[in-house]
Amino acid sequence: MGGLGSILRTSAVSRAIRQINSRAGIHWFTHSRGADLLRYVPGVIPVDVEANSVEQYGDLVSKLDVLVNFESSAQAKPVVAQAQRVAGYALNKQGKFYGVRPHADRFQRLQIDDAFRLGNQQTMQEVLLDSVGLGHIEPWYDVALTESNRVEAENIVDAAFDGKPPTELLGVNIGTSVNGRFRRWPTESFVELTKTLAASYPEQGIMVLSGPEDDEVRTQFTEKVVAPAPNVAILPNRVEIGNFIGILSKLSVLVTSNTFALHAARSQDLPVVTFEGPLPPQEMELGTRDILLGPKLDCGPCYSKCTQLTPAKCMYEIKPSEVAEQVDSLIRN
Questions:
Q1: Sheet of 291-293, strand order
Q2: 4-131 CATH fold
């Protein structure tokens, strides 16, 4: 029921369930945007609790063999309350969430005890799988795009470059969700990086990506870039989720903050250069080719509870020249 990045990351759990029982029917309770994304997660039936009240699904919930719950929100309570058996977080007699296994207790403590969380060395996908007794299964994203997504992605790229797209494309994702604003790299840094990449790689296309919550950032970026180089294309904010992932699959490298685009890129095995300051970097699902910059300040991770006079100062400490060097290393290797 959380952000799209969290939902995509949690597809590791539905993937593990399908590995154990390929005939399992998986209903995923989420919101409208989550339902749009889950169309591309195999074996999953999205249940949009925004479109209809949870009470309307009482009959479905009561018939589930088990409800795998990672939520401790008020929105999840009526779902959990109607379930016969629960893995992850259940409700006690006082209506409070608790972990039904020791690993689930540990997961819950990670959410509320920052000092304890500092000692965690698992990725969040590993934590999720462990908390419901599936830690023996290797974590990975579960995404299946359609041929239509690939065709539409090609059309979007063609249109962005007036029908003459370069053969190699680099991606720069400039936004995050509103909730992830402390993880957002400054717009000025993205502008400088984009100009540097455009000048350094004139034969390659620079795709500037953003999301539906990034209108303000996108406007700032467009104003500061002024006249983009001919090899820079700024894509629309609102690209259908499957088509967005399809565009990522066409890139050779993506520069992005820790947001949905990072998880979408990882699902396509696309190398990324990413940054982190507020959250523990060890929790990120990064591959051997991925490059992480930060955290730069001793106050991190702060779990987005910034105490600096300049909010998100740690992200300002990551310089565009550093990022450009790392992009170059990925391109050359």
A1: 232-234, 205-209, 169-173, 253-257, 272-275, 291-293
A2: Rossmann fold (3.40.50)
